Amino acid sequence: MSNTANNPTKVITGPNTRWSYCNAWEAKAIQGGTPKFSVSLIIPKSDKKTIAKIEEAIKAAYREGEAKLKGNGRSVPALSVLKTPLRDGDVERPDDEAYADSYFVNANSTTAPGIVDADRQPILDHALQVGTDSEGGYLVPDEYERTLVEALEEENIFRQMAKVIKTSSGDRKIPVVASKGTASWIDEEGAYPESDDSFGQVSIGAYKLGTMIKVSEELLNDSVFDLQSYISREFARRIGAKETCLQKFREDGEIKAPVWFNGVVRSEETVVLFNMGKTAAPLDIHIYPKSDMAAGTVRLAQGVGGQRAVFPNAVKAEDDVALLASTRECTKNGVPEKKEGFYQYSAAWDSKHKVALEGGKTAQLLFTMQEMQEGGDVR
């Protein structure tokens, strides 16, 4: 990388630059001064490329200031006698091993810095990104954090369906509708009765789950397989099973693959699904019309009809109309689609699902189900 052409005083440091005394998320005041965001960048002296870029940036800043001062008729001291931002750790901090054989630059600002991940996407929530040690901040490796969260979503089926709320304070207050108003029959030109909604809030507490895997240095150094991926998936398996007390159904210790049912419906049929798991299972439902159907004529109902879903838009032959527990959404040909009514994305032990189509027309069905069981304690 090189200095930015439009700003010769800007430098992108090398990959071996370390952070110390990091205050990147919250501004910190020193001895009652103005709170600032700050970091000490430690650059190994072996990184001659980064050091050269910083020295060139200092010269550029000097030339810029020199021109302004001379324009005002003022004298300018030589650069060699000025104290520059690039400082020698061996000279200024000889008792601190972190600064040995390194230069360092102290940077601070009253404006919060922009922080991005490996894909240069802004990091807005630092709950899983940042830690603090005795010498300042350090970043959790971004790839490892993302792998763990993705593995948790795969292991814990409810993370795929529910809204996950991250909180930094431990508690989260959520506004709720405590009671709803009602409508009333009134006479012509009669007064409208008042009936207000009332609101409240609920507080959700955060709980901590923990587990540990001991790994020797020899195993880390000598392992011939991807140990990091194994550890992240094992953490996800333990935490995912414990936080919901549910897990994917297992046979002989192995997770049972999702089961599927398919068939053809003409006009209206009731599909009966047999779930061999130990509890209700999430469903992905696909309807493939064999001919065009008018708006509102494709409908689903569960059980005795307490739950109904209607697709209000017209569908064409070979469309893929889907209700998906895996993504908690309704789609048509993979694109989000409007749905009216409520339909639970699950199947109990012998649940009944009524599929209704435009009269005399047919559609192919595909039901995919991930059977579940109680998670219990993970040891």
Give a written overview of the molecule.
- The chain has 379 residues and is of the alpha+beta class.
- The protein has 3 domains: 18-139, OB fold (Dihydrolipoamide Acetyltransferase, E2P) (Beta Barrel), CATH 2.40.50; 141-167 and 208-244, no CATH class; 259-373, Jelly Rolls (Sandwich).
- The protein contains 6 helices and 24 strands.
- The strands form 7 sheets. Strands 12, 14, 17, 18, 19, 21 and 23 form a 7-stranded antiparallel β-sheet that branches.
- Helix 3 crosses helix 6 (227-244).
Considering the chains and any ligands shown, give keywords for the structure.
alpha+beta; 3 domains; 379 residues; OB fold (Dihydrolipoamide Acetyltransferase, E2P); 7-stranded antiparallel sheet; elongated; Jelly Rolls
| Annotation, overall tally of beta strands | 24
CATH topology of the largest domain: OB fold (Dihydrolipoamide Acetyltransferase, E2P)
Tally the structural domains.
3
Beta-strand portion reads 25-35%
Mean pLDDT: 76
> CATH homologous superfamily of the largest domain - what is it?
Nucleic acid-binding proteins
Give the CATH class of the largest domain.
Answer: Mainly Beta
> What is the CA-based Rg, rounded?
31 Å
The helix fraction, in percent, is 10-25%
Specify the overall morphology.
Answer: elongated
State the distance separating the first and last CA atoms: 48 Å
Characterize the biggest β-sheet. 7 strands, antiparallel
Give a quick precis of the structure.
The protein is 19% helix and 34% strand. By secondary structure, the protein is of the alpha+beta class.
